[in-house]
Each structure stands twice: as C-alpha cells, then as structure tokens.
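Slide 14.
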Amino acid sequence: MSTRQDTHYSSKFEPETVLILQGGGSLGAYECGVYKGLSKRGIHFDILAGSSIGAINTSIIASAQNTGKDNASSILEDFWLTLSENLGLPNQLIQSPFSFISSDEMMAILSSMYSMFYGNSNAFLPRWFDLDSKDFFMPYKWTYLYDPGPLKKTLRQYLNVENLIKMDHIEIHNHNRNHRTDTGRRDNRKSSRLIITSTDIQKGESVIFDNTYSDITIDKIVACAGYPFYGLKWTEENGRYLWDGSLLTNTPMLEVVRRSPQLDKRFYIVDVFPRQQKEVPSNMMEVWHRARDIIFMDKTDKNIEMLRGTENYLSLVRKIYDILHADDAKVDQTTKEKLRDIESEYHSLNQKHGASITDLVRIGRREGSLHYLFEDADFSLYRIKKLIAEGEKDAEHVLVREDKS
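Slide 15: predicted structure.
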C-alpha cells in the first residue's frame, strides 16, 4: 500500500528524507523487510524515527549507518533472526483438525502461547522464572510480567552506542546541503539523526530521545519498548519512569516535525497494522484484534491537515506583508514599525512551523484470512522469515509504483 502526497515546497534547502517505523512487537520483522527493500534502492535517510519495536529497529539502523558502511539491513535482519524461535513443532500439531482454523493460524497461536509462557531467551524473561525475586510469592505486588534484560544483552551484539552519541551541531546544520536526487539518494552520506519516543508514566506525556541533543543509550532504547499491556517492565531513566512510546504515538511523524521544524520533509511511513479489513469480526478475539489495529494504525492524515493549515497561514501572512510593503515610499513611520512587528512574528512562526511535507510514501502490511490478536507475539522462525519477505516485497512494489507516478 502506498500513499503519495505533494505539497508546497517552502525551504531553500533540499527536503529531509525521513523513515518512520511503528511499534508492533514481532511485526517489526516486517519493517526489517521494508528497510531491506529501501536500502537496495540506495535510499538514505536524514532522520530515522520510531516507537516501541520501531525505536529498536531505527536504533540498529542508525548505529550501523553511522559507521559509514552499507550493512545496516543485514545487521537488522541478523538481529531478527536471533530473536526468532525455532520451535520445531511437528506437523501434526501445526495442522489443525478444525476446518475453521488454518495451519498458519495454528502456528501463530502455538508460537505466541509459547512466548507468553516461556518468554524469549534473547528478548524477555518471564517473572515466574526468576526464583531469586524478593516478591516471587507475592504476585499481587508485581508491576511487570517480563524483564527485558535479555534484550539489552542482544542489542549489545548488534548495536554500537558510540555511533548514537550526541551529533555535532555543525554536522546537523550541514546535514541537508549535500546533493541529492529527487528520490532521496545522496552522493555524500552523513550520519542519520535518530528520534525515538517513550512515555512518562507519572506525567502522561511523551519523552523524546534525539541524538541531536543527547546520547542515546541501550537503556533509553529499551525504555521506548516497555509495553505495559503485554506486561513488559518500565525503565527508570534520570528520575523518570518510562513506558512504551506507542501509548501516546505509534507513528511519530509530528514529533519529527516538531524536532526539525524548519526543513521540509519527505516521509516514508511503514504501517504494520492494516488500515482496511474487508471482513467484519466474527468473534470477540477478532473484535479486539481489529480494534487493536485501528488504535495503532497510522493516523498521520490529521497531522498533515494541521500542518497544511499552518503552512497556509504563514503564506497568507507573507502575502499581506508583501502587499503592505510594496510601496515603501508611501508608508508612514508608524506603519513601518507595525510591518517590522509583523515580519518579526512571521519569522518566529516560520522558525517553529515552517516545514512542509513535500512527499509521503506509505508502505503497509496487509493480512489475508489470518486475524489473530496475538500475532505480534509470534516470534517463530517461520513467521519472522515470512514477515521479512513480505516487507521486502511490498517495499519493492511501492517503489516501482512511485517510479511510474
């Protein structure tokens, strides 16, 4: 699925190319496949942004890209294959004896149930396996079910935090002066800026980690993926208690615009939760599944509408100023002072809200007949490989369509 949108181009610099990856548990393997497809086209991203598993994916990509090597997609794929579980389920268990449950759905059910009970040795450890816990026999005091300690160890294998330290502001300033073609390719690559989101539990507001302003550590990355409804542990960071960023924004497009408000943007958004579903839910599990999809799917259309309104407002202010200033000789001193105030306000607004969206490309995961609520907890090797292949195929399909449009 692709959506392309052209808007007014207002910046004197080339637009920033931005990749946004959503949260979605094991569905992040689809994002891995999409990135493989994009990187094969030589598309480089000025900004990488993500929530939840998208924050983990973008962090791995940024860490690898910032080495100056073109191996980010292979490192990301290796990470996902490491997370995958080869359950070795016999065919007679996978093949369902019930005609209304496909073997594909049975695999998803068995794999997600396995993850829920046993956890994932490379990602999260169930609380009931931690016999040394002080409150092991007091589950009514538990605030989490799974400890992401194993994930931190895995990330250390695939992510070099030295590549995610605070970026040089001179480098940021010159980030967009390199020559690029209309497709987002650059002749002289620079480090990608990383923007990832978490949620402050006590304040109920977004906490943004941006390596323009601060170092991004493994603890901060994991803090962006502590999804409470699946029982994942929160992270304490600098006196704040942090949960998953998807609780407030699963597609952090607006956060990117706010963090980089002056330069126009070319967005690539990967939507792992299907926007459309032809079938109406037939049971409560499917009802919750579809509701989950709608809650977390990409909703950037409203953001685009708001940004368009701001852009039109700024354009109108500029036109009014130009008209009043056209015949300067006939303008009295009082009017000139008022014009200077208008110009000052205009420049202030333009500094904060001047970015336009020049292009928007959506790549969205689609579902067949399988609508399983816990598909995002299916870490089976079979599913991970399938999601990677689907993401790569969809990315290529969308890019071919973009080339023709």
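Speaker note: The chain has a mean pLDDT of 82.
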